[in-house]
Amino acid sequence: MKKLNIDKETTKNILNDLLKRSPNNYDQYADRVQAILDEVKAKGDEALFDYTARFDGCQLTKDTIRVTKEEIEEAYEKVDPSMVEIIRKALVNIRDYHEKQRQYSWFDSQPNGTILGQKVTALASVGVYVPGGKAAYPSSVLMNIVPAQVAGVEKIVMVTPPDKEGKVTPETLVAANEAGATHVYKVGGAQAVAALAYGTESIAKVDKIVGPGNIYVALAKKAVYGHVSIDSIAGPSEILVLADESANAHFVAADMLSQAEHDELASAILVTTSKELADKVEKEIEGYLTYLSRADIIRKSLDQFGYLLIAEDMEQAIEITNNIASEHLEIVTKNPFEVMTKIKNAGAIFLGEYSSEPLGDYFAGPNHVLPTNGTAKFFSPLSVDDFIKKSSIIYYSKEALAPLHKDIEAFAKAERLTAHANSIAVRFENEE
């Protein structure tokens, strides 16, 4: 890890360093991804099955690509009942939180004969990408499906890579069934994104694609944007802990490593007003690395994108925190609620020493699909809003339009759009 005092040059270098992790910097893969997209678009299932055989070692057909009811029942038999119960408990919290985000149509009528409003409509269909391979991500399943279901999306299609035997991770299937997926398909990678974006004989086109994935999935989502909507281009995971001398170094170090273990591009940063705390955290990290199972990945992550940053005061600490705009921000100070009011940019904010980041990943309720790579400056966590669309409603009676029509016509003529002006004028042409 790099231990540095904060100044303007340090801040600039750190921001440039972190931006190297962005999927936008991996365009060398773009042509390969585009070739996959084009082939699936042109050949449909044929290309889909071919890429699945090539990349996942699994032979699919139109009869086996969709997960069956029997396969879901089999998954329940393989998952420990206690884990099923934990998934159900988490679902309650996640659903309750997202229910509070629900939006409704509204209308405002005036005595002069105008009605203005907004009609809220759920998207008809959504595709949820869930990573596969050796790892299982039931939490990702819950976080992507629940807000869509709460929004009222009728068709929720999940895609996830199969193993060589054509099986999907049991925990992933159980989570999908509990959360309310309507269709589950055994396909992953850029080819799955192509199927959701363009449609094939087996998988119908959806309106929006959400969910995390590797660089191929991220670039595929970027490429199909416009044919469908997407949630975001997710980058590697990151955490920033903002702490003062009151923080528990043992806890802080553990929390930083909870993100560094994701992959070698993950970022873990401590910003503190206490050099003593930074020194203690550094020692604690070394202690943890003697026994954590993913220590090799953690070391590489910390070597590349790990920082212990020492600020002159809390004002300077908050400033660099806002500049970095971390995906996960933990505030461990004497008064975290006061500090929180000065934070402008963060995906999710965790307050106090017992609100560690994994609480948000799995159980608290807020969504763990968050903006990365500084995009918290202008993006928000995944929410119910991502699964609805809004239509403006406009009604004017003749009496309401009459006193305004000349102003509207003048506005249109000022823009040299005479047909616009005429569209209004013809309604009053016999009254001049």
Short description:
With 432 residues, the chain is an alpha/beta fold. It has helices at 8-19, 30-43, 45-56, 69-78, 81-99, 138-151, 170-179, 189-198, 215-224, 249-260, 275-288, 295-305, 314-324, 336-340, 357-362, 398-401, 405-414, 418-425; strands at 2-5, 106-110, 114-122, 125-129, 155-160, 183-186, 208-210, 229-230, 238-243, 267-272, 306-310, 328-332, 348-351, 388-396.
Give your account of this protein's structure.
With 432 residues, this protein is α/β, with parallel strands linked by helices. Helix content is 44%, strand content 17%. It is built from 18 helices and 14 strands. It has helices spanning 8-19, 30-43, 45-56, 69-78, 81-99, 138-151, 170-179, 189-198, 215-224, 249-260, 275-288, 295-305, 314-324, 336-340, 357-362, 398-401, 405-414, 418-425, and strands at 2-5, 106-110, 114-122, 125-129, 155-160, 183-186, 208-210, 229-230, 238-243, 267-272, 306-310, 328-332, 348-351, 388-396. The protein has a 6-stranded parallel beta sheet, sandwiched between helices. Strand 12, helix 14 (336-340) and strand 13 form a beta-alpha-beta unit. Helix 5 runs parallel beside helix 7 (170-179). The longest helix has 19 residues, at 81-99. It is globular. It starts with a strand and ends in a 7-residue tail after the last helix.
